Amino acid sequence: MATPPQKTNKGGTNSSAGNSNGQQVKFARRTSSGRYVSLSREDMDMSGELSGDYMNYTVHIPPTPDNQPMDNSIASKAEEQYVSNSLFTGGFNSVTRAHLMDKVIDSEVTHPQMAGAKGGSCAMKACDGKVMKDERGEDITPCACRFKICRDCYMDAQKDKGLCPGCKESYKVTDYDDDPEYSSGTLKLPAPGGKKDNMSMMKTGGDFDHNRWLFETSGTYGYGNAFRDDYGDGGDERLQGDLETNDKPWKPLSRVIPIKNSIISPYRLLIFTRLVVLGFFLHWRVVNPNNNAIWLWLMSIICEIWFAFSWILDQIPKLCPINRSTDLEVLREKFDLPSPSNPTGRSDLPGIDFFVSTADPEKEPPLTTANTILSILAVDYPVEKVACYVSDDGGALLTFEAMAEACSFADLWVPFCRKHDIEPRNPDAYFNLKGDPTKGKSRPDFVKDRRRVKREYEEFKVRINGLPDAIRRRSEAFNAREEMKVLKHMRETGADPMEKPKVQKATWMADGSHWPGTWNNPSKEHSKGDHAGILQVMLKPPSHDPLTGGSSEDKLISFVDVDIRLPMLVYMSREKRPGYDHNKKAGAMNALVRSSAILSNGPFILNLDCDHYINNCRAIREGMCFMMDRGGEDICYIQFPQRFEGIDPSDRYANHNTVFFDGNMRALDGVQGPVYVGTGCMFRRFALYAFDPPNPDKMIVAKDNETQPLATGDFDPNLDVNLLPKQFGNSTLLAESIPVAEFQGRPLADHPAIKFGRPPGALRVPREPLDAVTVGEAVSVISCWYEDKTEWGERVGWIYGSVTEDVVTGFRMHNRGWRSVYCITKRDAFRGSAPINLTDRLHQVLRWATGSVEIFFSRNNALLATFKLKFLQRLAYLNVGIYPFTSMFLIVYCFLPAMSLISGQFIVQELNIWFLVYLMIITFCLIGSALLEVRWAEIGLEEWWRNEQFWLISGTSSHFAACIQGLLKVIAGIEISFTLTSKSAGEDEDDIYADLYLVKWTSLMIPPIVIALVNIVALIIAFSRTLFGSGQWNMFIGGAFFASWVLCHLYPFAKGLMGRRRKTPTIVFVWAGLISIIIALLWMALNPDSLNSLGSSSTTNSGFEFP
């Protein structure tokens, strides 16, 4: 007997609730003749007379060969295809509309999952609609007579008499649930002949011997029957190994590898020794002032005390570095291998949503974004568990069509990567690899396939590069047509023929309709800061079972036995209106969190910048090893190191930043976890919702129900469920998705020590198809008004109020008691681009430092953190907010050598033996700790030195400017931005490092230039005075040592300032001459007799002698 259960949506809630709370969606369809047909939701809704016929059923009868489970209902598949072919728009005080697009891009769409994929023509008279396609690209025919009918006509026929227009017979609806309860022990029967095909689309025709089928395949009947114990005799060999896994000991998915004691123990000893000696040194400096130059001594001692405090904040959190390792084979055994309860090998891994953010196609080339998307679509993770979301904050049609072109090329690229195990799966990076591409490849058709895919990729790049002109020409043609229509109308109405027709210069999509986002010629409601919310499901969710390709002649490459499915891909551009604070990137990320929670609700989120691609296709699995391991339920995020390409070999400006990523972050991993630094971070969605980590003492549910889903109020006993709209907004679907995401993100309850786990097999159930109400709700949550009077940006999601929203967001999670993990993979997980130009690098650091100053003067200061933040973690976050202020003391200290040389005084009155001893011990400790740090951090000594050099360069430029900017903003409310004032163009476009030599003048360069010139002039003056005058060599050597120390650190800055072939801006020479003259005049004013003494000394003394 079949019992119709309640249909559930993505969050596991009743669909009726979603209908009642969701947005009303108005449909509009444009025919090929140019006519628009408006369709109301009442015409589209399947919940009327058809609700009883098109309900999903759970069938509790044996899945015999003549009663095979069928796919989801034809109506739901057609609905999902219809939704994926529609462009949804909506926003504040506007109706959510679904615009059915006949075509998304000008080129041909081939993949059946892609938006715009249509089948054959509808057989109904006077209808130009297209038949929907299934997962394999074949036409969906709801009747056994194979009469081709589009979705609109099919619904009309159902509402009329329920008869097929072809055979005039009633539609026979036999929609069964295609996901039997494998957890109860029922085996899915393989097809005769050992084939694994699922006989689900049509009933098996012809005479079929059931007894022979059972005998030859060793099939098992029924629901809950016992298994045969003779699988080794002609049965499935995979099951035999899985039946034995229960006898194997429990294995962890990850391990902590401590640093060798031979390295870490001396390292800690040196730090402790330096700390003690530093205290004695500062005490000696305080009690032994230089009475001859008290001003010089006072400035130096103040700077040295601050440097000691800053060093403690930076060094003490490095006392506990660790390494980690993962076991991907154990992950595969636990989640992916077939078992008696999972004979088909469906993955039990949780879902993951990828976020890619972009804002301006002019600054962020669409080809770069497209390559990032392709690397995501080809990731080595269960296809049905992956969803990719592209946030286009600029609302540009160029980005939209570039993503559509990427989907079209993914039809070839993704199966090619799976077939030949390609790494990396960014086509641009792969085809630019140096070395033998055939290394490690054994398939005989690899060379042929690679050649064809490379040719297709070159054509793909040409199409992407030609999109701006194509969109412009298309828009000009349509605008000219509209002008002709207006002129014709003016003639017919007798208007003034000399009057110029007023036609908006719109931007047009490929299907001949207005683009709802930003136009090339911005106008009202069509500009970057004023446009409707846009959402397009470019690749609909894939089927839950693998679909292998064929070797037909129309395919370039044979994909036999290769899964050709593509992950779900969604284009999103949130609504923007004048007068609203959209909170830049943090606001865009929060919009992605809300819309993805409604559409796919992956319990984990990985965010990437548009120029960062997946370099290791198995990196996501390595991250899951930590999340799914014992104790992984309290991990809020996993930060991967950032690696960059296109950096000059010498890494002049420390762009790789390896000291931070391989040193500081690895050390924090041994405390409470690394800080969140932006791209390449995998989040637990539940942690982003501002909940505390699981705590047995606070949970309401009993311990025997720890593997059961919790209600939203169970996470926090003090949480009032009625106040959820105040926290998360008024979307019911969003609120109901929270406990689902929490439950699905739990590790397996396969060990007694695992608390709040989930039972095995809970995530093998396929997701529900998309419907218009669900997508309409996703559009409503990205509107500009949705966050009003909610806690989004204050407690929930990415935190607002700082330029460095990433650090603040991670701090809030650690402050609630969560911990994070640093995942360093053997092969770089992600790679991206970084500015190698000096000016761009300085402005990048300026933005980071400005965010740190904002953090220090906000409630996110680590001094105000809760007791849940560990002490060493607190010091690390305190250093994040304080380090820019070191620049003020650093600039003063860099001028001290010049002051000492010019004045003839030193920071100490005399070179006491204790001063030299303390200085020597501190120097030896510095060298020793640096050598040991580069060993446990696994970095090079040259990289450490480059980091030290750029620390002084950025400290005297960007950090100082950030302090000024932050103080003015806090005290006076004045915001200052340092922008480029002049620019020179690079000459050699073929040189990949040409941008390195590009000199762009900026005001940030003034302090380092002044410091360098002052120290150089002071060295010349002091040397001349000591050589020919009455100067003391010991004072000169002391001052010259520190001046040389400053100049050595500024060497990369000077080299970058010179550019290539002496293409230095004239302003540099003007500054140099001006400062030299000022210093010379100042010296003459302080020493009026210096020239006379210098002249007399030069005439009387023929040489010099040391004191």
TrEMBL record:
Region Disordered: start-end pairs: 1-38
Compartments reported by the entry: Endomembrane system
Organism: Hibiscus sabdariffa (roselle)
Keyword Signal: no
UniProt keyword annotations, A-Z: Cell wall biogenesis/degradation, Glycosyltransferase, Membrane, Transferase, Transmembrane, Transmembrane helix
Transmembrane segments: 269-287, 293-313, 876-899, 911-932, 1004-1023, 1035-1054, 1066-1086
Protein name in the entry: Cellulose synthase-like protein D4
Membrane topology: Multi-pass membrane protein
Keyword Nucleotide-binding: no
PANTHER family membership: X-BOX TRANSCRIPTION FACTOR-RELATED (PTHR13301)
Top-level lineage group: Eukaryota
SUPFAM superfamilies the record matches: Nucleotide-diphospho-sugar transferases, RING/U-box
Biased composition (Low complexity): 9-22
